[in-house]
Design brief:
The complex is a heterodimer of chains A (about 220) and B (about 500). With about 220 residues, chain A is mainly α. Chain A has six helices and no strands. Chain B has one domain. Chain B has 22 helices and two strands.
């Protein structure tokens, strides 16, 4: 899947890698602190073990941010931090759900079971990432992310109130801005073409219940 | 044997009606059309085209979906041969020799042999599906919850072992899929689980949303990273038909690929990718001229293409007999079936024989359609591939949005897909394979249900999974596979298989 082999320009200097560790570490620290705070706002208090785990998580993140732990394999370290954070979040989210009743599973049993197993595996990956060197995390294509995600969200926001025509046109224009080699006139032409195509195909060709124009029309 | 012919005849009489043949043709055509676009795998293609089957009767919809599925598979191969960008992961190996052939001016024979190999593999696999369907269904009836659970464990372990990279990371990512699938209402108590009080999430996050986000949008974000390095074969493609020596050279490869692919496809856990890799590796081993591989030899196209098609077809066996989707694409088929009120599993064959056998017969028709439409239309695909990516991806994004929106008419689903797109991108940045995650996501609810039921029946005794013979055997195989995958000597071999993937 990751067929794109990073070329020379992607690799970071030691200084940049330190900055990346600081930034990512702080992001995870913040998220961990938010989780910790929310664990105190639950109706029934979260178990002590969960809270302790979150505190340890935050401590590890802070240590990573300030270079106290050797991040030899950034891909594995930050990847497993993400999974651990997700697992801890699942514990907080399923806190109110009852667990085992005798030998019958409660609704909360399976989520906590899977979360625990995932955290254990992620810990193995994390420790491995501190001990053996590995590839760094290649740079995120921020421009692509902002515009593609923006286009999708714009579609979601506009399809109900504004209808298919406006939603399609707007999201094609926004999405096209994600490419580095975007050209304004071409993009407008393509957007018009796609919009006409969609407006004919989905409501008429396939008989799907799409509203074409804005509500006030 | 008589039964088999009888059943196939019943299927043919359903599938060969003009309406259904037309639907199959249209499905294969649009499937190829979308599948040809680089960076759109069969999963995203089917998800995108799902809405066009909504208005059809169940049998028609499934036949059309099957057509789309094969079309998407074949479209992926066309892209690999012409552009050297795999349309999807299962056609990665086709790039190696296929694109070399195209560069030598033999794109026509490469495309033709891919179609012929796929057709032959499809014919064999269709008979296999029909032949194995009935006996496996009777096996399925012996399965209790414990056996189902163990079988799904085996499937997930397969997915882990077949994934690239670290086994532990793949296992962790499977569990992430299982965990995410727990979101939504609990089946037994109806309790809202991890929904954060959002009403749209009480039904869980749709599989299409997760799959389209991680595979579709995640892939687009990844593609935006590599800047315009597509080398499309220039010039007119002439001489479509392979020569007689070509056919002779490819015949053995097609046979071996089909056999290997059929076996690997039945296994739960994403057989198509490994089938094409394994078939290619096998060919390099048995060939008298192994040095010709990678320089445009016809066996190097024929073997993986046949294997991949055979596997994608036999993947229907676990779905139709056990009701367990062996790979993400089949999981999407489950979703499509449920939309039409069909619950996949052993009962489909007995209760709705026309649907079951009609679908199997339509697989064969679908493969025939591919030969008919693809060879004359190669020129069209080439022209489509010349469209710059900066024009293609906004179109893909918008079609995906419309596709997701039309499943439930829910804007919330579209926003969730955006989130999963970022998740998919993040996963690829940290070298997590998306396929095991999706499989875990698909099997999660089924696994939980069977685990709970098995534990309840056994009165909380967890040893039930190892004391029931079938279940014990399945778990033993899973454990063995996992141990083998972690052993260093096998690891080396396993990495070797994936070596062509760079």
């Amino acid at each position: 899947m990751s067929d794109a082999t990073p070329s020379g320009e992607w690799s970071r200097s030691a200084e940049e890698q330190r900055r990346y560790n600081l930034l990512s570490g702080l992001v995870f620290t913040t998220l961990g602190v938010i989780l910790l705070v929310s664990s105190f706002m639950l109706q029934s208090p979260a178990p002590l073990a969960v809270r302790a785990a979150i505190i340890v998580f935050v401590a590890v993140c802070i240590a990573i941010s300030f270079g106290l732990l050797p991040v030899l394999n950034p891909q594995d370290v930050f990847g497993s931090l993400g999974l651990i954070l997700l697992g801890l979040t699942a514990f907080i989210a399923s806190n109110e759900l009852p667990g085992m009743r005798g030998f019958a599973f409660g609704p909360g049993t399976a989520p906590r079971l899977f979360a625990t197993a995932m955290i254990v595996l992620a810990l193995i990956v994390l420790v491995g990432g501190f001990l053996t060197p590995g590839p760094e995390v290649t740079k995120y294509q921020v421009r692509g992310m902002v515009f593609v995600i923006g286009a999708i969200l714009a579609f979601a926001a506009s399809i109900r109130p504004l209808g298919l025509v406006v939603a399609t046109f707007a999201s094609v224009i926004i999405c096209a801005a994600a490419a580095d080699d975007v050209k304004a006139r071409e993009t407008v032409l393509v957007a018009i073409g796609i919009t006409i195509f969609c407006a004919l195909l989905f409501p008429y060709g396939l008989n799907l219940p799409f509203q074409l124009w804005p509500r006030f029309w | 044997m008589y039964d088999l012919i009888n059943h196939l005849w019943l299927g043919m009489s359903v599938a060969a009606t003009p309406t259904y043949v037309m639907l199959c043709l249209v499905g294969a055509l649009v499937g190829t059309l979308i599948g040809v676009l680089p960076g759109i795998g069969s999963l995203a293609t089917i998800a995108m085209l799902l809405p066009i089957t909504f208005g059809l009767p169940p049998v028609g919809a499934l036949i059309m979906l099957a057509g789309i599925y094969y079309g998407a598979q074949y479209g992926g191969s066309t892209t690999s041969i012409l552009v050297n960008i795999p349309g999807e992961s299962s056609s990665v190996v086709t790039c190696l020799d296929g694109h070399e052939m195209a560069k030598n001016g033999r794109a026509g024979p490469a495309l033709a042999i891919a179609a012929i190999g796929s057709f032959f593999a499809g014919c064999v696999a269709t008979v296999l599906v029909a032949a194995l369907g009935a006996p496996l269904t009777s096996v399925a009836l012996m399965f209790g919850p414990a056996e189902y659970f163990s079988l799904m464990v085996l499937g997930l372990i397969f997915a882990v072992v077949l994934a690239r990279g670290s086994v532990i990371k793949a296992l962790a990512i499977v569990l992430m899929g299982l965990l995410l699938s727990m979101i939504g209402s609990d089946l037994e108590t109806g309790a809202e689980r991890m929904t954060w009080g959002i009403p749209e999430m009480s039904d869980g996050i749709g599989f299409v949303v997760v799959g389209m986000g991680v595979f579709g949008f995640g892939e687009i974000l990844r593609n935006l990273e590599n800047k315009g390095t597509r080398e499309i074969v220039q010039g007119k493609i002439t001489g479509l038909m392979p020569t007689l020596p070509d056919l002779k050279a490819a015949a053995g490869a097609i046979g071996r690929g089909t056999l290997l692919g059929s076996c690997l496809g039945i296994l739960p856990g994403g057989g198509t990718i490994i089938a094409s890799f394994a078939a290619y590796t096998l060919e390099t081993r048995v060939s008298k001229h192994p040095e010709r591989f990678g320089r445009g030899t016809i066996e190097g196209v024929a073997a993986p293409e046949s294997a991949n098609n055979a596997a994608s077809q036999t993947a229907f066996i676990p779905l139709l007999t056990l009701g367990i989707p062996p790979n993400p694409v089949m999981a999407l088929m489950v979703g499509a079936m449920t939309i039409h009120g069909i619950v996949p599993g052993p009962q489909v064959m007995t209760k709705q024989p026309e649907l079951f056998w009609g679908m199997i017969a339509s697989m064969w028709i679908g493969n025939l359609m591919l030969i008919i439409i693809n060879l004359p239309l190669v020129g069209v695909w080439v022209r489509l591939l010349r469209v710059p990516y900066r024009h293609l991806f906004p179109m893909i994004v918008v079609f995906c949005c419309i596709g997701i929106y039309s499943v439930n008419n829910a804007p919330f689903d579209v926003s969730m897909t955006a989130i999963f797109g970022v998740v998919g991108y993040w996963m690829s940045k940290h070298d997590f394979e998306p396929a095991p995650m999706i499989l875990g996501y698909v099997l999660g609810p089924l696994m939980e249900e069977n685990l709970r039921r098995a534990m309840l029946i056994a009165r909380g005794d967890a040893t039930v999974f190892v004391t029931r013979p079938i279940s014990a055997v399945l778990l033993a195989i899973a454990a063995l596979l996992l141990i083998l995958a972690v052993l260093p000597s096998i690891r080396g071999k396993r990495d070797e298989v994936f070596v062509g993937d760079d």
